[in-house]
Q: What sequence folds into this?
């Protein structure tokens, strides 16, 4: 009987679970109207109908997407009655607009151009539930969509570390998935020249390889290993074609006149001193730049840009222009002669040498313009008079975009406050690959509004778009590129594409699991912080307890323990917030499908000050206020770096905290911790005073201590100060911890006020 039953079951048809497409993808389409009419059933009977070589090529691509997402094989221009039709005759003012019309017989993807149709294909692709299915139900719907900005870019530095042709193509695939249309390819820098220039063969023979690379951020230790690579012109053309087939324009950047040390290694006569120069083995900004007084430099710029324009059909050509120190130009007779000959003078805050860069920029502009192309440059190009049709890339915040637009230039927003994907994306940097610094999580990228409110309506129209930048000093391989890019690219694409009134981060988080499934089946390495648990700890004085709230992505289940044991699906299932009154080690984990999040772990140590009513006389510094005063008595001791949100930061103001113990209590010691990060001017406290009161009005000084000069040896970590009290009973304790007023002479920021980061004030 038993045997019979199992055999019988084996012959039952596999019940296919109904899976349904969801058009609310990332970037969120501008209009999705789903109706209750019969859906389109996507299965292997379906054919894709397309006319003409370009549409047939796209149809093949779509068939590949459907297969990747669902396992379903559809053919192209086959005999199937039910079909997906690709077209590009939508009448729309926006050339990248598209419409998707789904009914029981067909899915029609119609673009205002082939590019628009391709974006529609991406929406269909991302709408499909990932898995191995025999059919997918596509609800009857009208989707109408168009991008907010015409320029939707991502920059990739292949100089600090080289990435091969296949990796660059995968990068382009990543952009296509997120509906970007511009790939900004950073091809030359101090640490390596990456593109073949036939007139200057030594650029690839000599300048494409450095002998070794500095370890860490500052010089001191090197890895002793050569690093290099370059693209032949044929390889570059192959990449341009690959990108064009995905409706992505490739903008080359030759960064000049700074960031040219690698080129100077190959052609030292182009520098002010004549060299010798090495392909730089360090990070940062080198003083070795092109000599602006040397006519050979002008010929070099003309020749290189002309060959670049022969390779790249892009309307836009980027000439860099950032970070060009003027140290050599100040000393160089040729540069000084040029300044004289051209009648260049200092103006406002800019020296004659600063304005000499404008001479070079205008020269490059004329070369680019002479071929009917448009010049782009980093916002330093605003430091001289540039023609109105040059485009400014605002990277030092948004000031360059504001000034550029006010001058009548078109601008692209790529501020280092929101768009630098080489910055850390998590505060827990001990779990992150070593990075350049900073902190730009997905939410920060998402929050960016590219059109500055300071501009007039006419000036606002000059903001043509937005892009991310990926500098690769600390990005060693392609999996790390993907980790730094995704899912920040998802947040970026919604900034670039979606109407601002439709943007909502909570809603974005609800849509991201579907995109993660796409990343998963494509084998992309992406950051999973959004799937981690975020905990909010709120001291509640009336309950003498800590309220614990967890959140994570929709569709996940959270389990936790309080005794430090590993949480599993058998641990307490988190349903709603709960309270902790005693010492605990909280561990929590989220499961989404089979995917397990990073384990959250926080230790709660309860003392007399924990969860009491507290107030601060002075506000912490603007960016370091976090959850405010209660953080200091939440039972959780700050660890790691000072940006974690567990430390409160003070500058030019004391941490002046009053604790209400609720009733008179004997307390013998007051402990507090200070976070040290000496190189950032984050150092130890200078003094502490503790006062006590029984009524909250009249205070007596219990103790006062001066900590003296800060320690030079203590560069990082935590310092714990323990202050003996008088053993008397008080209800109110006032503690005043003072920052170091002025950093000592040996410090890089000598005489500046120091930052003071405090956490967990405990009373025993
Ligand atoms: C830049 O980050 N130097 C443009
Ligand atoms: Zn010079």
A:
């Amino acid at each position: 009987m038993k045997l019979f039953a199992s055999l019988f079951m084996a012959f039952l048809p596999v019940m296919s679970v109904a899976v349904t497409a969801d058009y609310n993808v990332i970037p969120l389409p501008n209009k999705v109207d789903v109706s209750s009419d019969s859906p389109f059933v996507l299965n292997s009977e379906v054919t894709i109908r397309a006319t003409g070589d370009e549409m047939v090529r796209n149809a093949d691509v779509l068939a590949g997407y459907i297969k990747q997402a669902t396992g379903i094989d559809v053919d192209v221009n086959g005999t199937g009655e039910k079909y997906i039709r690709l077209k590009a005759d939508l009448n729309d003012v926006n050339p990248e607009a598209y419409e998707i019309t789904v009914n029981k017989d067909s899915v029609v993807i119609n673009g205002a151009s082939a590019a628009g149709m391709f974006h529609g294909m991406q929406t269909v692709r991302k709408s499909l539930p990932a898995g191995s299915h025999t059919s997918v139900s596509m609800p009857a719907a009208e989707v109408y969509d168009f991008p907010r900005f015409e320029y939707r870019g991502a920059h990739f530095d292949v100089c600090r570390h080289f990435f091969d042709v296949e990796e660059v193509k995968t990068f382009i695939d990543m952009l296509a998935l997120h509906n970007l249309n511009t790939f900004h390819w950073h091809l030359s820098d101090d640490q390596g020249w990456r593109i073949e220039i036939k007139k200057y063969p030594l650029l690839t023979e000599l300048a494409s390889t450095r002998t070794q690379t500095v370890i860490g951020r500052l010089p001191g230790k090197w890895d002793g290993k050569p690093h290099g690579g370059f693209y032949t012109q044929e390889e570059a053309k192959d990449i341009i074609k690959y990108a064009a087939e995905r409706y992505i324009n490739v903008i080359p950047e030759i960064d000049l006149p700074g960031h040219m040390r690698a080129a100077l290694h190959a052609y030292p006569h182009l520098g002010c001193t004549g060299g010798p120069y090495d392909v730089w083995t360090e990070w940062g900004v080198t003083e070795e730049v092109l000599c602006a007084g040397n006519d050979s430099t002008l010929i070099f710029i003309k020749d290189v840009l002309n060959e670049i324009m022969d390779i790249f059909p892009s309307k836009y050509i980027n000439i860099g222009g950032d970070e060009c120190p003027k140290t050599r130009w100040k000393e160089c007779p040729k540069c000084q002669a040029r300044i004289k000959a051209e009648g260049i003078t200092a103006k406002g805050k800019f020296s004659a040498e600063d304005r000499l860069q404008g001479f070079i920029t205008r020269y490059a502009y004329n070369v680019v313009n002479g071929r009917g192309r448009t010049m782009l440059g980093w916002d330093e190009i605003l430091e001289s008079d540039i023609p109105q049709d040059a485009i400014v890339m605002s990277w030092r915040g948004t000031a360059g975009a504001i000034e550029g637009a006010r001058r009548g230039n078109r601008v692209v927003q790529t501020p280092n406050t929101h768009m630098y994907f080489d910055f850390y994306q998590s505060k827990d940097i001990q779990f992150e690959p070593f990075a350049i610094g900073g902190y730009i999580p997905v939410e920060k990228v998402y929050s960016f509004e590219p059109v500055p409110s300071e501009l007039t309506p006419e000036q606002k129209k000059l903001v043509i778009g937005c892009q991310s930048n990926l500098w690769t000093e600390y990005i060693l391989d392609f999996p790390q590129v993907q980790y730094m890019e995704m899912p920040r690219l998802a947040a970026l694409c919604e900034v670039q594409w979606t109407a601002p009134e439709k943007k909502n981060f909570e809603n974005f988080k609800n849509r991201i699991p579907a995109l993660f499934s796409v990343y998963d089946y494509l084998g992309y390495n992406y950051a999973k912080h959004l799937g981690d648990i975020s905990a909010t700890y709120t001291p509640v004085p009336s309950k003498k307890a800590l309220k614990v709230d967890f959140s994570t992505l929709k569709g996940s289940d959270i389990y936790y323990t309080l005794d430090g044991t590993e949480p599993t699906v058998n641990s307490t299932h988190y349903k709603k917030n709960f309270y902790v009154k005693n010492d605990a080690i909280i561990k929590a984990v989220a499961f989404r499908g089979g995917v397990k999040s990073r384990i959250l772990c926080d230790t709660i140590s309860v003392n007399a000050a924990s969860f009491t009513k507290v107030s601060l006389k002075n506000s912490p510094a603007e960016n370091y206020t976090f959850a405010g005063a209660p953080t200091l008595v939440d039972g959780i001791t700050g660890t790691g770096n000072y940006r974690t949100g567990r430390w409160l930061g003070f500058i030019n103001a004391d941490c002046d905290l009053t604790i209400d113990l609720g009733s008179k209590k004997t307390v013998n010691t007051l402990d507090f911790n200070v976070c040290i990060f000496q190189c950032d001017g984050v150092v130890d406290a200078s003094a502490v005073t503790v006062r006590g009161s029984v009524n909250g009005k009249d205070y007596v000084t219990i103790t006062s201590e001066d900590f003296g000069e800060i320690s030079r040896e203590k560069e990082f970590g935590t310092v714990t100060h323990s202050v003996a009290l008088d053993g008397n009973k008080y209800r109110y304790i006032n503690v005043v911890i003072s920052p170091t007023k002025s950093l000592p002479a040996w410090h890089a920021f000598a005489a500046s006020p120091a930052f003071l980061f405090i956490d967990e004030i405990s009373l025993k």
